[in-house]
Structure formats: C-alpha cells, structure tokens
Write a structure and sequence with these properties.
alpha+beta; NTF2-like_dom_sf; Nuclear Transport Factor 2, Chain: A; globular; SnoaL-like; Nuclear transport factor 2 family protein
C-alpha cells in the first residue's frame, strides 16, 4: 500500500505545481472534503465545492510552488510537509479582515493530512504555520 500512496503523493504534488485544477481533482473522490485550518475556515464538501476552493486559492496565488520536505505514510493516509512559496495576487478576505497584495513572495511551511480511499484523496486537512499570517500582515488579527 505504501508504494501506491507514495505514487499518489508524487502525482498530487506534481498536479498542484502545474496549477491544473482538473489534474488535481482527478486525484480526488466525488465526496471529497477540504479544510484549510486558518481563521476558522469551514470544511468544503464535495468535488464541485472543493474544485472551486482550489481554483480560488490558485487565483490568489498564481505563482504558488510546493516543495516537499517530509512525507509519512500509513495504511490509508499520508502526511506531507511542504515549503510553500507564493505571491498574493489579489486581496484575500479573512472574515472582516482583508490581506492586501504587496508584490513580495511569501515562504512558509504547510502540512497536509490526507485520507485516501480507493487510491484517491477523500479528505485533505491543510495546516499553515503562523508565518503565513505574519507575511500577509494579519498576525495578531487572525485566529490561526
């Protein structure tokens, strides 16, 4: 099982780095769930809603690059720690706050906890380090 999870992790990382939402979503189940653990963001449920969320993230950060630092595999899950570099291209709302683009690339760490069902991503829980909020000018203003 680990070999197939390793292959999925490689394909998934490549898909994200191409910024191709169709390619990313081809690796998700139809009942997929996504949760970005930042500012109490809600779960996004279902392939259409997740596709929209991912498209929105890629529009906010059109130059985003993920570099895998570590990966851990279980029977039906993988944990991927990545170094993320991205430049905010458009204003990004955080509830009542809005992060404004400043033209400077940000670099921070992210961790994905991914549940796999039948070889596809069923659930993606994403955690970002506090450096993301700090670089967006939201440190002390946003619940991380």
């Amino acid at each position: 099982m680990t070999s197939s999870l390793e292959q999925l992790a490689t394909r998934y990382g490549e898909a994200w780095n191409t910024h191709d939402v169709d390619r990313i979503m081809a690796l998700h189940t139809t009942d997929t769930v996504f949760r970005l653990h930042l500012n109490a963001a809600p779960e996004v449920v279902g392939a259409d809603a997740v596709r929209s969320a991912f498209g929105g993230l890629l529009a906010l950060f059109p130059d985003i690059v993920f570099r895998t630092e570590t990966e851990t595999f279980g029977n039906d899950f993988l944990v991927n720690q990545t170094r993320i570099t991205a430049t905010l291209a458009t204003p990004m709302p955080f509830g009542e706050l809005v992060a404004q683009p400043n033209g400077r690339p940000m670099t921070f760490t992210g961790v994905d906890v991914i549940t796999v069902v039948d070889g596809l991503v069923q659930r993606k829980e994403t955690y970002l380090d506090i450096g993301a909020a700090q670089q967006l000018g939201l440190l002390g203003k946003v619940a991380v």
